C-alpha cells in the first residue's frame, strides 16, 4: 500500500525520485483510506483514497469517483473563503485519491464528546454553511459540475433513508416521499456530510473535510445532517444536554440569518421534516452512530424519531425544544 501512495505522490509531482518519505495510516472512517505523509522538512500531507466498498456491517458500495467530487467541492469553497477548507496539493483521478495539507487542529466531534462545547463554533459553522449555499444557489454551472445524483443516492439516500424505510413499514411511505423530493431538488450545492467528525476547530473558524458526497440538491440536507449530531450527543452525554441545545439553537439562528435564496422559514420547515428521519437512520440505517451502544439509548432515539415522523414538528425550534427537554427528563 505504501508503494501505491508514494507512486501516486510522484505522479502528482509531490515526491521526488528516491526522496524518502514516511506514510502513516490514519483512522479514515468507513469510506476511505487516509494516510499522513511526511516528506523531509516540508509541511505534512494527508492522502485520501475512496473505497468502492465501505467498512460497515451492511453491504454498502459507492462509486470511488466521488473523490473527484470532493476535490471539486474543496476548490469551490476555497474560492469563497480559503480558511474553510484544506489546500489541495495534488490529485490522481485514475487512482481515486488526492493529497491535501495536514491540519493539526482539534476535531469538533472530540470537543463535543469531551464537554468542551463552544457555542461559537456552532454559530460559525451555521453561518459558513449558509454562505456556501448562498454562493451556489441557482447556479447552472455548479449544478452541471456537481451532477452527482448517483453518488449521493449510494452514499446518503439509500443507506440512511431507504434502508431505514425498509425496517419501518409504518412510516416507509413518508421516508420514500422525502427521498424522492430530495433526489429531484435543484436548489444549491450540498456537501452531504456536514458532521462534527468532519469539521476541525480552526483558528479562523470551521474547516470542512470529507466532501465526497457533494451534489447539487437541497441544502436542507446539510443543515439537518449536522443538527442531528446535537440530538444524538444529548442522548450519549446527557450531562452536556444544555450546551448541546444551545449549540443547536445557535447553528439554526446563524444559518437562517444567511439564507438569501428562499424564505428562511421554508428551509427551516423542510429541515424539521427531514431531521427525524436522519435521526432514526442513525440507529436503524446502514451507518448507526457507533457511540450509541446502550439499547435503552437506541430505543429512546428510535421512539422520539418515529413520533416526530408521524407528527412532524412545525419548525426546528419546536423540534429542538421537544427533543432536548424529553432527553433531559429520562
Characterise this structure.
Helix 6 packs antiparallel against helix 7, helix 6 packs across helix 10 and helix 8 packs across helix 10. The N and C termini lie far apart (48 Å). This protein has a 5-stranded antiparallel β-sheet with strand order 1-2-3-5-4, with helices on both faces. The longest helix is centred in the C-terminal third of the chain and has 21 residues. It has 2 domains: 100 residues, Phosphorylase Kinase, domain 1 (2-Layer Sandwich); 221 residues, Aminoglycoside 3'-phosphotransferase, Chain: A, domain 2 (Alpha-Beta Complex), CATH 3.90.1200.10. It has 330 residues and is α+β, with helices and mostly antiparallel strands. The model has no long low-confidence stretch (mean pLDDT 92). It is globular and about 65 Å long. Helices cover 52% and strands 13% of the residues.
